Amino acid sequence: MAHADNTYTYNSAASNSDDSHKSGNQLGMTFGAGVEMALNARTSMKFEYLHVGLNTIRTTRVNGDSSHFGNSLDTMRVGANFKF
Fold first, then answer.
1. pLDDT digits (tens, 9 = 90+) for 23-61
2. Which residues contact 64 (CB under 8 A, 6 or more apart)?
3. DSSP secondary-structure letter at 6?
4. Fewer Cβ atoms within 10 A, N terminus or C terminus of the chain?
5. With contact defined as beta carbons under 8 Å apart, do 46 and 34 qualify?
6. pTM given for the model
7. Integer CA distances (angstroms), 52 to 19, 55, 73, 75, in order
8. Residue 19: what pLDDT?
9. CA proximity to 48, closest of 83, 9, 73, 79
10. What is the CA radius of gyration of the chain?
């Protein structure tokens, strides 16, 4: 069995530092895929991958320095299913 999905992600976050404050909302996208394989009638193994991609955050501090970072997350999961 294989599956894939795609959703839109909405994130509300705030961060603080000594000389700046940034808060707001981000719109991004999530997509993933997975595979599940039966080992026998009662056991299966699965693998899933998920990527969350949000907008790049850009900030400017009071002293004029600016910075930015990409805001994304990749996860992989491996699992076993047992039927009772």
1. 666 678 888 999 999 999 999 999 999 998 887 777 777
2. none
3. E
4. C
5. yes
6. 0.55
7. 29, 10, 5, 9
8. 44
9. 79
10. 19
H or E element at residue 8: strand 2-16
Closest to 61 measured CA to CA, from 15, 18, 26, 14? 18
Q: Would you list the DSSP string of 10-66?
A: EEEEEEE-SS-EEEEEEEEEEEEEEEEEESSSSEEEEEEEEEEEEEEEEEE-TTS-E
Q: How far apart are the first and last CA of the chain?
A: 20
15: its two tokens: 């961060």
Tokens 């026998």 map to which residue? 40
70 band by pLDDT with thresholds 50, 70 and 90 = confident
